[in-house]
Amino acid sequence: MLGNDRRLIGWFRDARCAAPQWTLKEVSGREVTLGGRTGNWLAEFVDTTSGRVIRTSMVEAKQNQLKVSLPTFQGSIALRLATSFDRHGGSSKEGK
Prior knowledge:
Blueprint: E1 2-3, E2 7-13, E3 26-27, E4 31-35, E5 40-47, E6 53-60, E7 65-69, E8 73-74, E9 76-83
Antiparallel strand pairs: 1-2, 2-9, 3-8, 4-7, 5-6, 5-9
């Protein structure tokens, strides 16, 4: 995962998909845990072939850990995370 305290991006792929066969298998039941995170986050899962958002969900960090369940995918999937106050470019409390 790459990012800062307000936005993160990540890419996940099926590690079993390797040369020379490149066989794509369905991946399910996976979870990503990020330490040092607090608050509520908007998770957007993006199809890496089409670039379309395939699912969104709100995720709450607990005990400084953000646990995000990945949807079932084949090949790879991208994940965009934004703190709930940063979804539309910033909180109204910021005033800037």
